Amino acid sequence: MNTRKTAIEGENAACEYLKKQGYKIVERNYSCPAGEIDVIAKDRDAVVFIEVKTRNGTDFGQPEESVTVQKRRKILLTARYWMSAHARELKGGCRFDVIAVLRGEIRHIKNAFDGAGRA
Asked: What value does the CA radius of gyration of the chain take, rounded to a whole number of Å?
């Protein structure tokens, strides 16, 4: 299976999981000059920026291990860009999660990193 197809299937599984947990999907694959965020969702009043990492095996480590410092910085910049256009939706604050999909199993890591990019 090609990498893009695997990623799309992982994002679809992550969104289904989130909906079952009571999240509302706001946007998928949000893109701006700063970068891209896989899923933006609402968990009650909080806006959640979610990076989805999907793997079929662990030859290259656990999926969440690929969310590097550089990737976190890019997500933060992209989230700031989104927040500047959607300030009224931020009454409950925001957080940064990672969803790791490994062979169809989903691990949801809430507050995977903070607003400064620290894990």
From this structure: 14
**Structure-block tokens of residue 53:** 């990492």
State how far the Cα of 111 lies from the Cα of 74, in Å rounded to an integer. Answer: 16
Domain count for the chain, please give it.
1
Print pLDDT tens along the chain (119 aa). 577 888 889 999 999 999 999 999 999 999 999 999 999 999 998 999 999 999 888 877 888 888 999 999 999 999 999 999 987 777 788 999 999 999 889 999 999 988 766 66
Domain holding 85, by residue range, is: 3-113
pTM: 0.91
In a domain, 118, yes or no: no
